[in-house]
């Protein structure tokens, strides 16, 4: 049983049912999400020991966050209580050519106001095998960035493997620092890069295309600059429309290129959190299998997440392995 | 901001959830619909000033109709209260090869009993840019027909553009007049014809096929007979089954033929009201763009309606424009 | 096992959940009701063999009516299919001092259009022990009245006991006949009178008060006029408000007066159909017990109905007997 | 038809169903509220012409606010769109001795950031008969206070009647001004005081008790200080527990004391917004009846609100008049 | 109107809504199922007279089973009440490559404990045209096997046609007898074999493939061994994934091979009970049409079941005939 | 922070919504319960460290049990997985004089089949302060009894305080042992007796009444026989009906008698688990306060549970303390 620590904002997702618009019905459903928490939850379903560090409101909403994470097997012992509200987002779910739409309420959240000194990183990272971060966290606020930076430094000192998902979200980064500068600094502290040409272009001011050849060149350049990075793990997606996707994954480990089969999701149930499912699958894979199987596991985990409602991937390791063994017919299990 | 007036019955749609049959569950969901009201609602979402004329029951059901229309931005100031009940229909939603089924309760409705003299058409059509009617209204009752006729005459006198959607519904027309006679008379008062070979055959006793060549010939014949008609706007649909459709639109404006690309709806959410969405898109388009863009707008609006629950199309002008710019992948909007 | 036949309109009840107003939510719930059908359903729960005669729409709504009655043990073999829609009503449920409100849609219903000659009364009443009617039926339409009259005559010839619940509803009776004339004629064919001073005043143009003394005098006068009536069975209700009622029942059997204890319903769950529950309890009681126990059974059945959702009383004979044995504490049954 | 303008924050209320705690179920229901919007909505149900001024998020949540107000007959034409999120609160509904609990997320809301100069008060108050404000608005932010102050000054210049509900909420007032100073300044601009000893003590640093004698003395003192105040209208409540309340209202108009009967709410459906229902009832009453009937109307409106789900009172003028005529039995209306 | 008797366990299906996992939501939905009851229900929808024999718990759960069957037109007069609980299963519904999962609770059920002597087979099979059994029943318990055996013997004596669906479920058969021995014995008493190479291999220890040629050889061998078998009716399925299936049916009647067209279910609504829908369609077909039309009817009935929620097929004979006439577009029926 | 261990069956509660009967609606809601697990959950909400020992099915139902307990803060690390199904019960919720009804399915459950040797009691009871058991456990099966006995012996050896709630349930105890014999043996190992005359009469073959005097005599007799018992803690309940209760608690600690005030629950939300809430309140109280305050805490906790949906009490220590300080008005907490 491996121990993984994640750090990041937990958001409440609030949505009308089915494909309804908010103004069509006063019934709602909620889940909790947040990219790093989603990774922790998925890793817990795979049987790992996970702990999520975050800050939540000191009211029954924050209490519900802890309950939610505990329910799904994530340790909440180091979560910080704050008098600021929990960040949240509203979702209207699209279909076919109609996009899903998200309205955020997170800029004043408990997590944005997190006190970097309030986190006991030494205790948090004790006996830890893996630390995972994403580009959302440093994009939220100076406090969030400082807290993450501290965590990464200590994780680095402890020799913990660090995975970076430097997703760049242009709507964030409103506190006066440049995304590129900060992300470069944080990637330097990391060992596994989850991303591809798009993310590398953002970091290195390059303009690689989505072609495999470019992916390899971009990966080489990244590893050249950051030799601490042991592998670049990307996923590619073809969206016929909002309800029908095809996904594949590829890697460059510094020596070899490898690409998975394509998996086709003909009836998307929930698109949110599929990237986090990929990341969790990859981390689990890299902790337990070789690179290639890890990539297949990540791709299959990602595919399965499209059939799970809510932000986090709730499938087991056995269900993912079943897929990579080629069982795609979805036959009933009695 | 253009002002559009519509006239027609508002029906309550009552349906069990999902694909359940009525006898399977005592949970229901309701929406309000009615072809002309659907057009008004969609036009209001596109930013137009709309007013719907109808008659509703003078009880909390009629009150809910007004609330519904107001919620969606339609002016209800001239709606007539009646001691007759609101018309309604029950819906069982099919899937794949199973058809949806509708059971009507409308023959004794507030709207069928509408007093033609109770409508203040002069006030209703003040400053109005566009008046829209469909063949459902004159099919319902003599009163409804007389009321519509009066409205069309006054609209005509005021030089308001009139669109006709002379949909022929054989289950109606039970009050002793011939559909053909009355529809011909009303089309004569109109300027935009929303229909194709099917509707023209009904009016002119012809037998044109669905081929483009026939569509053009039929349109020519129609315009020859009714020179007031400035354009014939048709849509065509291929239904693989109840859950998967492909749609296209075409026009003959007296001089040119034009046809849109095909849009594919791989996962139909709600089929009802897609024709009304087309009509609303067309009217909006003709008020704001050229003929070709109007047709594309209409086709895209129609496609998007298949992803919206309920009878009326709740998408914005921006969402439709996004589609005709080729953005069909349904990528999440944050 | 006794066989009971009832005749009357089945109405669909459609209501928003809880105490919401229709315009507050598009979620609804439905039940089927109708005073005579409610009596049949309750009698079926008590273990009797019941058959309900009515007309329903020949669509999936009418199909759902039959399913509903069958589910609750009522024989639907003689129900007539009609191309007219099923009658229905919308309900907004009040609380405390806020009244529940009902909006009907029944004047054009399948039942109002029932063809008196379409009912095979001979077959319907074969081996029948009891026939029950209410004043709602003759109030609806000439057809409904004629059909009922015919049924009563044949039941009379067959010596079947007939109970009359001549509830006068002023909002009905719109087809040109006087309620009083028709109800008197139908009561003359009946043996058990379910009602009190209010109903007798309506029939006899008297003005008796609700006092027990007046109830006895009114009953005497009624039996004097209609010696076929063997007993007058009334219930009285004190409504503190819509959520808190107290009920009692009393009888005059031509010789003796008897009154039950008062039962207090401190938390009304559903007020609709409580009178029908009383009638069903009374009929069951008179078929199986003596007059006094029958009255207690009726009162307890009525009280229990206030705790059951929907129009019909779904409690068993054992549950009612439990109450009249004094078990009012509602202790959990494991 | 009177025209009333209100100004204040619209909050989204999000709550699990029934008495569930948030962590017990992921189903939610929402309503919109906010004390001044609640008053506008209730006044619209009474048949008045109402306009609400506020700021909402420029996303589908803000869009849903406008739809909601329009649905309930409130003019939304002057609502300001903001890139800040809508304020909201989560609610867990208690029962009996368990309190309901509220968790706010409003300190960074669109309304708190409202630009006082963005409101066209001249246009907003055109032809207006009544302007209503509460102490929540100046408690939220300097911007909100400044905007309100400006509105009150212009309303005063126009001779519009101004009602003040100076509710003091200790959890707010976090922007560095003293509640007492600001509320005194705003009461000075007002004509109708909605409050009693509690509110007056807050304003005048007095310590009057809840006794009628003290209420009269407090009112006298208030009117002495602010002769613009024409009447003091208070309501008193006895809470047996969260589910059972008794309410009464009283007034001092400068000359006379008057007190209503007590109304008993034996089964509270929704406690939120009952004070706003009282204010709306009072304003409607003072615009249409004499002082005493206005007070009775306010008390009855308040009582009825306890039976309505959601934040705003959706009863009609007729329903309130029905109560003050003594009809408390909640008999079904057919 | 043909009379059909079925015998087997009724199971309650309990499932979270949509594709949710049980731990994601505490909302559930239930249906009743069980392979033989599903056949009875479907045959009742086709207009046949059906009776189902089973044992249910003597509590409100067992009561609900009877209500459910009666609602759907199945005679419950010979159902046995037991002090053992009703069998049930929990279902998590998958999508795309994620399998649905079933968790059973049936090993101690009322049906497993059924007393073979408690069933009045003589009465049950009076005037019966067809008796249907499946391999689930003898797999459950010795009692269930003995009861079935007795029924088959009496049916055989009465010359009733017997259809066998010898589905082999390896998770059952825990009471010490070999499936093969018992199934062979029971097939010997039957006339119609519903199954193909898979089921025949199980019975005859052969290893035929799914190819048509092998199907024919297997069928020949079966009929050679059991000359009472008049036809072998198989269905084949291609599952692209859990949400997209293609089905076909084939038969060997001792002389000829026949195969239907393929029907494609592009959007599976509910996969459970589709085999039972095929069996019911086949039985109805064989009772009313020739072999080939019966097979087409069975295949179309099976296809339609994929669009119906719950375990049993609720479509009418007309709906199935509509499909085999080639109407696959799912056009709305008004 | 105290550590408490509980041992007993976890049952799934499945119920239709509101007061509906199972056959009225196919919507259900579930909670997990079981008397000892309810105690553990409530103690966790009060801030204690709790661990529950049980056996659950090794499927997604058992997985959901663990998630549920973890969500509510109970350690599930020693729960045993079994191939037997989880025990469950169906509930129909009554109101007023109508009783709630429970239908059990537990006689073949995972817990009944628990292997006494599979529990690592040494590890389970490490650092434990309190062990709680009830009479339900030894009533279920010989295995359950043996497992409990072993646990009690080890707890006794470790000097852990043991509370006994020897609730006698006559419907259980079907495995051939006498309840009285076994309960006496287990009470002998315990220190705190939760019960009163009823339970003592069962154990000692006495016939004490519910009067305080008798309670004291009974308690004295019990302590005389079992000097290890340090206190007898009883609660008394007056049920006006299923919706309105009054509760009080009393104790005899060997020296003194003490009785709490009566708390009135005028609107019962959920009656199930209120005894467990009392037990949990008592245990928490005895671990943290003196006897009298402990009793008040227990009574208030019990009262609050009546307002919480589901089997377990989810209120915090602060909420209970708030009640015993006399705050019964249920004022909203903002």
Automatic annotation (TrEMBL), chains A, B, C, D, E, F:
> Entry's InterPro entries?
Carb_kinase_PfkB-like, PfkB_dom, Ribokinase-like
Classify the source by domain of life. Bacteria
Keywords assigned by UniProt, alphabetized: Kinase, Transferase
Q: Which residues form the Carbohydrate kinase PfkB domain?
A: 1-312
Which Pfam family is one of those matched by this entry? PfkB
The family database entries (CDD domains) matched by this protein are listed as: KdgK (cd01166)
Q: Does the keyword Kinase apply?
A: yes
A GO molecular function for this record?
kinase activity
Family (UniProt): Belongs to the carbohydrate kinase PfkB family.
Q: What is this protein called?
A: Sugar kinase
Q: What phylogenetic lineage does the species belong to?
A: Bacteria, Pseudomonadati, Bacteroidota, Flavobacteriia, Flavobacteriales
């Amino acid at each position: 049983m491996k121990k993984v620590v994640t750090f990041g904002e937990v958001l409440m997702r609030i949505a009308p049912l089915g494909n309804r618009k908010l103004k069509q019905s006063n019934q709602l459903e909620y889940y909790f999400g947040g990219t790093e928490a989603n990774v922790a939850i998925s890793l817990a379903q795979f049987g790992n020991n996970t702990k999520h560090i975050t800050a939540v409101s000191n009211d029954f909403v924050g209490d519900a966050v802890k309950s939610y994470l505990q329910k799904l097997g994530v340790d909440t012992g180091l979560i910080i209580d704050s008098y600021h509200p929990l960040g949240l987002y509203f979702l209207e779910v699209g279909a076919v050519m109609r996009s899903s739409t998200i309205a955020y309420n997170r800029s004043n959240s408990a997590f944005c106001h997190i006190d970097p000194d309030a986190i006991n990183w030494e205790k948090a990272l004790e006996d830890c095998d893996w630390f995972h971060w994403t580009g959302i966290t440093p994009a939220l606020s100076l406090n969030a960035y400082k807290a993450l930076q501290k965590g990464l430094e200590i994780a680095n000192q402890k020799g913990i493997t660090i995975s970076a998902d430097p997703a760049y979200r242009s709507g964030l980064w409103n506190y006066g620092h440049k995304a590129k500068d900060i992300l470069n600094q944080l990637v330097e502290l990391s060992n596994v890069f989850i991303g591809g040409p798009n993310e590398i272009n953002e970091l290195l001011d390059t303009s690689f295309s989505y072609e495999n050849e470019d992916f390899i060149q971009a990966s080489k350049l990244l590893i050249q600059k950051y030799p601490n990075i042991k592998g670049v793990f990307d996923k590619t997606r073809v969206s016929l429309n909002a309800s029908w996707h095809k996904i594949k994954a590829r890697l460059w480990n510094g020596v070899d290129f490898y690409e998975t089969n394509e998996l086709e999701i003909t009836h998307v149930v929930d698109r949110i959190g599929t990237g986090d499912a990929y990341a969790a699958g990859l981390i689990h894979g890299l902790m337990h299998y070789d690179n290639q199987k890890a990539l297949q596991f990540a791709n299959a985990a990602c595919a399965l997440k499209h059939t799970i409602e809510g932000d986090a991937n709730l499938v087991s390791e056995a269900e993912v392995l079943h897929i990579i063994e080629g069982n795609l017919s979805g036959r009933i299990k009695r």
